Amino acid sequence: MAPYMRLRQICLVAPQLAPVISDIAEIMGLAVCYRDGNVAKYGLENALLPVDTILLEVVAPFKDGTTAGRFIEKTGGRGGYMAIFCCNDPDERGRNANALGVRTANVIDHAPYHGVQLHPRDCRAAFIEFNHTEGSDDILGPYPPAGPDWQKFIRKDVTQALVAVEMQSPDPQGLAEHWGKIIGIAVDGPELKLPNATFRFVKGVSEIMSALEFRVTDVAQVLHAAKARGLAVAGNEFLLGGVTFRLAG
């Protein structure tokens, strides 16, 4: 199989799913495709919404002592939780990360899905996961974490695509190079360009996944919807689910 690497999913974390999920759905014109009962064993509940072929997930802890709960406490609820990539060989990417001193935190094996999660402390800024689903090399193919028929929930009349992920660091170039080595992509300035999204690394006080950039049909309409839901809008962006939602036409 030819090597490939694509952004498959972004996971945000919130103290509760409500009203974050309904806010995202209403403001961005997206639909929930799945709520995964498998995450309950981690003390979490979740919901996923497809943004074209990239999944946007929100997880929330429902008991004490979860990794997600500790993440919220440590960050004050600011910053995205996970960047999830699909690739041809997650185990190879995991071994490569281990050789860089990045530990494996968790291996998920639910055939036909296989995922390797790396330790967020070693990744810096957010969790990185690599996964592969047998028979899913078509980007609209099966993806078990998003449910059996996630493709039917794609809505593109308001939000067309998730085009970029912004990462903050006191040393943006250093973080870009670190993530580039883990993911296996050459750094282009302080950016990592995947076939379906770009990771941009910018100067910031702490290392976090700070913003998601979306291409939308009508920027003003989405900003109006955000204000109507009681969110503070500044320029072309607003804060939701711990990250800045940034809009481009």
Based on CA atoms alone, the radius of gyration comes out at 17 Å
Structural category is alpha/beta
Percent of residues in beta strands = 35-45%
Strand arrangement, largest sheet? 2-3-1-4-7-6-5
Helicity level: 10-25%
Overall mean pLDDT: 96
Q: State the end-to-end CA separation.
A: 36 Å
Q: Write down the secondary-structure element order.
A: EHEEHEHEEHEEHEEEHEEE
The main sheet comes to: 7 strands, mixed
- Unreliably modeled segments: none
Number of helices: 6
Task: Describe the overall structure.
The structure is a single chain. The protein is an alpha/beta fold. 22% of the residues lie in helices and 37% in strands. The strands form two sheets. Strands 2-3-1-4-7-6-5 form a seven-stranded mixed β-sheet. Strands 9-10-8-11-14-13-12 form a seven-stranded mixed β-sheet. Strand 5 and strand 6 form a beta hairpin. The chain is globular.
Q: How are the elements arranged and paired?
A:
Blueprint: E1 5-13, H1 20-28, E2 44-51, E3 54-61, H2 67-75, E4 82-87, H3 90-99, E5 104-110, E6 113-118, H4 120-123, E7 127-133, E8 159-169, H5 172-183, E9 191-193, E10 198-203, E11 208-216, H6 219-228, E12 233-234, E13 237-240, E14 243-248
Parallel strand pairs: 1-3, 4-7, 8-10, 11-14
Antiparallel strand pairs: 1-4, 2-3, 5-6, 6-7, 8-11, 9-10, 12-13, 13-14
List keywords for this structure.
alpha/beta, seven-stranded mixed beta sheet, 6 helices, single chain, 37% strand
Gist of the model:
By secondary structure, this protein is an alpha/beta fold. It has helices at about 20-30, 65-75, 90-100, 120-125, 170-185, 220-230; strands spanning about 5-15, 45-50, 55-60, 80-85, 105-110, 115-120, 125-135, 160-170, 190-195, 200-205, 210-215, 235, 235-240, 245-249.
